[in-house]
Specification:
Layout (H helix, E strand, L loop, with lengths): L1 H44 L2 H29 L3 H19 L3 H23 L1 E2 L2 E2 L2
Antiparallel strand pairs: 1-2
């Protein structure tokens, strides 16, 4: 009986910590939104020399917001599909913003393909014609 009560206390503490993390990420997302609009306005006003840098800052800001939202969804709904979505967005963000060459892009592409293939299997519940659970 003592182990059951301890497990319940730990489970409740973990749930409280998860909710605190969700709230902090949500606050961070809301605080980052104005900068997204600022980058968008700068992008429309920028000349050709600064256009790429401005767009890259805008894209970086937008993608980090998407990753934050996907992280919240993963914590709220702990399903394999949510984890795979997060992986896809994180790898995609890395490939778009921080890839150092063709090898990085190739690895990112293969990773995204594997994640999408895994997601398709989970959604269809079939793997090469056989039912999976």
């Amino acid at each position: 009986m003592d182990n059951n009560k301890s497990a319940q206390i730990v489970d409740k503490a973990i749930h409280i910590i998860e909710m605190a993390i969700i709230i902090m990420i949500g606050i961070g997302i809301v605080m980052k939104l104005p900068s997204l609009f600022t980058y968008l306005i700068e992008f429309t006003k920028a000349n050709d020399v600064n256009n790429f840098d401005t767009f890259q800052r805008f894209l970086e800001s937008a993608l980090i917001l998407v990753v934050g939202i996907e992280l919240i969804l993963m914590i709220i709904t702990p399903k394999p599909e949510a984890i795979l979505n997060l992986i896809i967005f994180v790898v995609g963000r890395h490939a778009l913003l921080h890839a150092n060459g063709m090898v990085d892009l190739l690895i990112a592409t293969i990773t995204i393909c594997i994640a999408l293939f895994s997601k398709k299997i989970l959604e269809s519940k079939k793997f090469f014609g056989k039912d999976v659970e």
